[in-house]
Amino acid sequence: MHKFISWNIDSLNAALTSESPRARLSRDVLHTIKNEDADLIAIQETKLPAGGPSKKHLAVLAEYFPGYTPEWISSVPPARKGYAGTMILRREGMEAEKIVPRIGAPAPMDEEGRLLVLESGQFYFVNVYTPNAGDGLRRLGDRQIWDGLYAEYLAELDRSKPVIACGDFNVAHREIDLAHPESNHMSPGFTDEEREGFTRLLEKGFTDTFRYVHGDVKDVYSWWAQRVKTSKINNAGWRIDYFLVSDRIRDLVKRSEMMDSGPRQDHTPILLEIDL
Q1: Distance, CA of 130 to CA of 54 (rounded, Å)
Q2: pLDDT in tens, 217-272
Q3: How many whole angstroms separate alpha carbon 61 and alpha carbon 72?
Q4: Could you say which of 68, 83, 124, 129 is catalytic?
Q5: Which end of the chain is flanked by fewer CB atoms within 10 Å, N or C?
């Protein structure tokens, strides 16, 4: 049995170095993740420097996750500094080769550290932080191009061996994937274009494992807006974080669920167990 976890931490840098109340809440979540003893832990939005984690970052990570090796990619020029970025923590004994793909996305998306892959003997493990369409949907066109290129990339991997793809996809696929669909059809993450892009991705041979396991269950989300203080209390959330698997291994999925992040708003970690 393999266990995987994915979490958009919204600044691993802050979680490891700051003493703010939010950073302390983030570290509480890291403790929760640590206790799951996962094989691979995918982290999005690390916001680390272009050169990657510092000695201090690595030392603190080693305290939380002894026996894990961090693989990472950061945002580099001409992209913004301390922006986006992804990491995968690989447990000792889990052999896999790091791949940093470039999918030909609109500039500077390929430089923002959004895509990190590990290849094991059995499968590809893909960690993605999908670009947001942005305020006023200013980046929607570029986002649509990304969605198409990313779907083609996963399909290419799938021709070689099964794929497990996780991360923050920045889209609520169906109306049951957010609390208030009626007022969000023009909001980033719930436009027709983004939802259709996700549908086309699934049609290339991939399964949304949460829906596969739980069916049309409602009111289960992975993200609650920080700017709305009552969003989590009222469960006014969105499900925008996913574990996808190649259709041919979906029957091997045993668990796919959200983890408890306590009072911390924003993203909560998600967990997948699969009997490969």
Answers
A1: 25
A2: 999 999 999 989 999 999 999 999 999 999 999 999 999 999 999 999 999 999 99
A3: 13
A4: 129
A5: N
Which residues make Cβ contacts (< 8 Å) with residue 233, sequence separation at least 6?
none
Residue 168 designated active-site: yes
> Where does the pLDDT of residue 172 fall: very low under 50, low under 70, confident under 90, or very high at 90 and above?
very high
Give me the residue label for tokens 């996305």.
105
How many angstroms from the chain centroid is the CA of residue 153? Answer: 17
pLDDT tens profile 94-124: 999 999 999 999 999 999 999 999 999 999 9
**Exposure class string for 214-228: b at 16+ Cβ within 10 A, else e:** eeeeeeebbbbeeee
Q: Are 87 and 46 in contact (CB under 8 A)?
A: yes
Domains of the chain: 2-274 (3.60.10.10)
Across the beta sheet with 2-8, the strand order is: 68-73, 86-91, 40-44, 2-8, 270-274, 253-258
d(CA 212, CA 251): 9
Residue type, position 225, single letter: A
Catalytic, out of 147, 168, 241, 266:
168
- 64 assigned to active site: no
Question: In the structure, how many helices (H) and strands (E) does the chain have?
Answer: 6, 14
